[in-house]
Amino acid sequence: MIEVDNLVKHYRAGDGSVVRAVDGVSLAVAPGEMVGLLGANGAGKTTTLRVLATLLAPTAGTARVGGCDVIRDPLGARRRLGYVSATTGVPDRLTAREIMRSYGRLHGMDEGDLDRRVDRLVGALDLADFADRPAGRLSSGQRQRVSLARALIHDPPTLVLDEPTNALDVVGARDLFCLLESLRAEGRAILLSTHRLHEIERRCDRFVIIHGGRVAGQGTAAELIGPHGTLEQAFFAAIGAGAAS
Amino acid sequence: MSVPDVNHADSGSPPLAAAVGSTLAVAAFQLRRLLSWQRLVMAALGVIFPAAVMLAVRRTARLGLDDDLAVLMLYALVPEAVCMLGLLVTMCPAVADELERGTWVHLAVRPGGRRALLLGTYLAAVAWTGAVGLLAMVLALAVMQLPNPLRVAGIFAGLVAISVLGRAALFSLPAVIMPKRALVASVAAALVVEYAAGFMPAVVNQATVSLRLRSLLVAWMTWRQRLPVEIHLLVDPQPPWVQIAAVAILVTLLLTTAVVILEFRQFPPSDEI
After folding, report:
1. Which chain A residues touch B9 with a CB distance below 8 Å?
2. 3-state SS string over A115-127?
3. pLDDT in tens, A55-112
4. Residues B68, B70, B71, B75: what is their CA dihedral angle, to the nearest 10 degrees?
5. B272/A contact by beta carbon, under 8 A
6. Nearest CA in chain B to A95
7. What ipTM, to 2 d.p.?
8. b/e map B48-57, b = 16+ CB within 10 Å
9. A80 within 8 A of A156, measured Cβ to Cβ
10. CB within 8 A of B171, min separation 6: which ones?
11. Could you say which of B6, B13, B269 has the minimum Cβ distance to residue A113?
């Protein structure tokens, strides 16, 4: 379960002014649910996800991952969270297996558990063909799969993905969403941000649209779009930028 | 697809063994990163540099180089110059490298990831620079032709170890406080703390590695009785174990402070890449 309640995050800019990156965002993701966080660049998506990932401390409000408050119990939140970002940060000279093993050790997994877990992920995420190849020689889609495997190494019940399809082509994006749907079916709570609306229109259970650091609308596709529109139209209507047409 | 296997989400706080394991995992990862041909060329230059200087001095010194002066030069070249320069390129970018490579977020979202990053990088920097320093010392001793090279080698092995352990801890602070300017800040720290404050005959020099290294050199080379009176002000008369204990305390304080700062450090997304 992911819960964000009235989250506020302010930065102090280089010129001393205060930037309100997130200004009162509330959302929730239940186990077995995939929620799309939509917004233009600078809307506050990444900041919200980074607060959930314990990378940034909220100015006000609360955020919980798997029941653990990110401020009071950051270690608990980190144990229950898998995080994937647009920049995969996959080291070029290590293989997928080595990357998974390195990060598994950061979770204190013992070698036996780690071996079994790596083998399971290699099979489940279709990494077998390139699991022993240095990551520098992998395609963007393969690197993002490795990044997902790394996020899942400790078997977290929640997944947060920050624009995971940014560097992927259509096929890579479709494959990644197929994997995410499988993970959702296992009961994981998944929150992902994107501004490629057409990719997620039929894949997410609910959507949260944020604009200027505030929630501009949220609900299921049917609630947001209505019987004849598109998610893109609903998005532009919500942020008040005019209809997509 | 069936991913769930073992759920670690509810495991307790990482025990000491897990913390050590994660630190060693990062150290191994960083050492592997250092094994690029560019870094190996830099390391080779660091190994050759003191021997080349000593060789050049020996050839130009008409009456031969005094043994004590040669040891003093070796001290300036290896535990000071080579170790300091090596640590500037291995320890200073501890956090900046991760931010630039986009790996910071993936390390920082792991329990103990930030601590493991800093301590693992510290171990890798100490091992790498220490190895370069030791090889540089052995090569330089080979060209210096000192009367008792094994004894000098033993003394300098200790000095190199203490230099890299102490200075890497010192550079960990700029690495976490101002990662993007860590190199400049570390050079400033080296000049102001190690060389300006370290040579000041006052209480302030007690907190520097350079005072401890000089004092150990004087004690282990049994130079104390022969030192001019004014030079006595620049070394600590305490026995070697006190110098080593002082460095150990300094390292513990510096690394603890750096880990605590890094645990609370926040980087806005704009700080990456």
Report:
1. 66, 79-80, 154-157
2. HHHHHHHHHHCCC
3. 999 999 999 999 999 999 999 999 999 999 888 888 888 899 999 998 998 888 888 8
4. 140
5. yes
6. B29
7. 0.87
8. ebbbebbbee
9. yes
10. B87, B88, B91, B92, B182, B186, B189
11. B6
DSSP string, chain A: -EEEEEEEEEEE-TTSPEEEEEEEEEEEE-TT-EEEEE--TTSSHHHHHHHHTTSS--SEEEEEETTEETTT-HHHHHHTEEEEESS----TTSBHHHHHHHHHHHTT--HHHHHHHHHHHHHHTT-TTTTTSBGGGS-HHHHHHHHHHHHHTT--SEEEEESTTTT--HHHHHHHHHHHHHHHHTT-EEEEEES-HHHHTTT-SEEEEEETTEEEEEE-HHHHH-SS--HHHHHHHHHTS----
Q: pTM, whole model, 2 decimals?
A: 0.88
Residue type, B60: T
In sequence order, which residues have a C-beta less than 8 Å from that of residue A198 and are 6 or more positions away? Answer: A231, A232
Report the C-alpha gap between A119 and A99 in whole angstroms.
13
With beta carbons less than 8 A apart as the criterion, state whether B4 and A155 touch.
Answer: yes
Fill in the amino acid letter for A102. S
Going along chain A from its start, the domains and CATH numbers come out as 2-90+156-239 (3.40.50.300)
Distance, C-alpha B93 to centroid of its chain: 13
Q: Which two tokens stand for residue A52?
A: 């959930």
